[in-house]
From TrEMBL:
Residue ranges occupied by any Exonuclease domain in the UniProt entry: 59-240
Keywords from the named record: Exonuclease, Hydrolase, Nuclease
CDD domains: DEDDh (cd06127)
Protein name per its UniProtKB record: 3'-5' exonuclease
Entry-linked SUPFAM superfamilies: Ribonuclease H-like
Gene3D superfamilies recorded: Ribonuclease H-like superfamily/Ribonuclease H
InterPro entries assigned to the protein according to its UniProt record, in alphabetical order: Ribonucl_H, RNaseH-like_sf, RNaseH_sf
Listed GO MF terms: exonuclease activity
Cleaved signal peptide residues: none
Domain of life: Bacteria
Length: 250
């Protein structure tokens, strides 16, 4: 017999997920009027591509951070990787990779993960010195990430510390897309009822489902490229070139 409480709980989760999408064009216009920092103001003034645009016509940039930990209030960015892309191409000639001096302690545990040493960050530039360049690379593009809370929250916290202003931007989250298609509504309900563990949607496991090659993890640039390739594979499998951007935004 089915557990009624579990069915009701799943129903509440599905209902909560149906949230009206944010009007990013209007939001960017408002933020452009209120922002004080020149490069951030220019970022907003460039606007955001219309949500109705076919994904095949959307300029994107895959982005990844390595950090000193997982809490943006106590930890900080230690490296940034990005690569411009489209539905059809990863533009490696436009890729950028920065190692920056973190504002917080570089723990040994994080060094083991990303391999960036104390000696490397000792001679690295401050995050403040690359803010303008980073925003320039992001402006006018839709940011592609795998697990959006990391990039959104860490960039927002870093800018608040350095320029006393945060940042907002739309993203395509390949982890959210993979969650949608590796755990359909029926599978999610059945797994919940049967108390089964869902399949992994970590970046390497998600890539493996599309037969993409394995890349060593936790290099920000490599992970950005891996994320961009994953989105292309997801698009080829689950979407058409005419799918609207709005269907993919998080």
């Amino acid at each position: 017999m089915f557990n009624l409480a579990k069915i009701q709980r799943v129903g509440k989760i599905l209902k909560a997920s149906r949230v009206k999408p944010l009007d990013w064009s209007r939001r960017f216009a408002l933020l452009a009027n209120t922002s004080k920092y020149p490069a951030l103001k220019n970022f907003y003034q460039q606007g955001v591509i219309a949500a109705s645009t076919p994904i095949s016509a959307v300029p994107m940039v895959a982005l990844d951070f390595e950090t000193t930990g997982l809490d943006p209030d106590r930890d900080s960015i230690v490296s940034i990787g990005l690569v411009p892309m489209t539905f059809h191409r990863i533009r490696c000639n436009g890729a950028r990779h920065w190692i920056v001096k973190p504002e917080t302690r570089l723990h040994t545990s994080s060094v083991v993960v990303h391999g960036i040493t104390h000696a490397e960050v000792a001679g690295a530039p401050d995050f403040s010195s690359i803010i303008d360049k980073l925003l320039e690379h992001l402006q006018g593009k839709i940011v592609v990430v795998h697990h959006s809370p990391i990039e959104r929250r860490f960039l927002d916290a870093a800018l608040k510390r350095h320029i006393q202003e945060g940042i907002e931007f739309p993203v395509i989250d390949t982890m959210a897309i993979e969650a949608q298609f590796s755990r359909t509504i029926r599978k999610t309900l059945w797994a919940s009822l049967m108390a089964r563990q869902p399949s992994s949607i970590r970046l390497p496991d998600s890539r493996a489902r599309y037969h993409l090659p394995y890349y060593r993890q936790h290099n920000a640039l490599t992970d950005a490229v891996a994320c961009g390739e994953l989105l292309q594979a997801q698009c080829a499998t689950h979407f058409s070139p005419e799918t609207s951007l709005s269907a993919m935004l998080s």
